[in-house]
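Exam prep: given the inputs below (a chain plus zinc ion), describe the expected output before reading on.
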Amino acid sequence: MKEVNIKLISAILVILGISILIWFGNDKDALVVVLSKKKDFNLKVEELIKQNEDKELVRNENFKDKFIYLEFQKDNECFSYFIDTVTGEEKDFFAYVKEDKREEFNTKIQNLLYLKYPKFIADSLSLEETQKTYQILQDELFIYYDNSVIEPQVFEKLYLGVSYKEIQNCLDFAVSSSEETLEESGYSYDKNKKSVALTFDDGPNGEKTNKIVKLLEQNKAHATFFMVGNKMEYGKETILNVLNKGNEIGSHSYSHKNMKRMKIEDIMSDEEKTKEIFNNITGREIIYTRPPYGNINQKIKESLNTIFINWNLDTEDWLHRDKEYIVNYVMENVSDGSIILMHDLYDTTVEAVEELLPKLYAEGYQVMSISELAQLKGKTLEMHEVYRSIKAD
Ligand SMILES: [Zn+2]
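Solution:
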């Protein structure tokens, strides 16, 4: 009885063994996979290529036996995959950043984001949950960001090009970096984008002026501040702060009187006084004047050696003292080349600027000083002329 059982079991085992051999005999690789528990990364590569059939495969590269880098493109968009050559699994790019260097890597990326983009965008893009696509290029790593998470929503393509020179020591795979690669140089104005000049009258006004300067800085924007001569001496630090952050300052007369009701000699001597005070504080010259209330006539124009800057977009922030009103008014009336008038005197103006700058950016506007707008538009502003907007010819 026992002997029969053993024979029967042996027979079954032999048949089973033969079956297994026949099963895998046709596919030696599959047998190896089963025996070593090692997955074949080629299977994953094939699977992904099939999955992305509708796109163009532009890279299929083995990075020093660490991972296979697959890159597809469609409609100018990049789709990348990292397949581990040991496990055959698809991994996140971050798996190939050295574990003890991940914090350093993140800090570097974050700094570059704030260098390139306004704060409201950099804040969103720095969040861990923001979707990113990593593209491995010859000399740099490109990171593309999902822009649907940003408020107000922006419609431009958001990306960072990071030279390997900056991150080489953080990466767990070898890359080459040529000497010519430029590091991220930060934000710069673009001739092809819509541009406006923002102007603030009646300062310097200490805390409120400085808050506006900070908001401008956070939003990669500049402005021109038209300051009153008799207030300048009490606001030296504010004046220097305004200038140090890339803004400019013009004259708004010495004592904010209506020039049309003044004697020409008095207008001229007041203007000289303002210029002198400014020069003593900063060592710089004033080249623009905004007459109080925008009031000007031919005689005043001819008498002062200055460029007159008025506006074509008056927020009437002194009258409304209402953030929503100011923001809506600007967004509904702004156009390329506008000169916007505000006053750095009111909390509601500061609040409006805080909301307005991201909105203008999101709508494709660059915000700058009068000189920057003139330069970008290729316009030479002339002495004795009055400008209400600055547009290219
Ligand atoms: Zn004024």
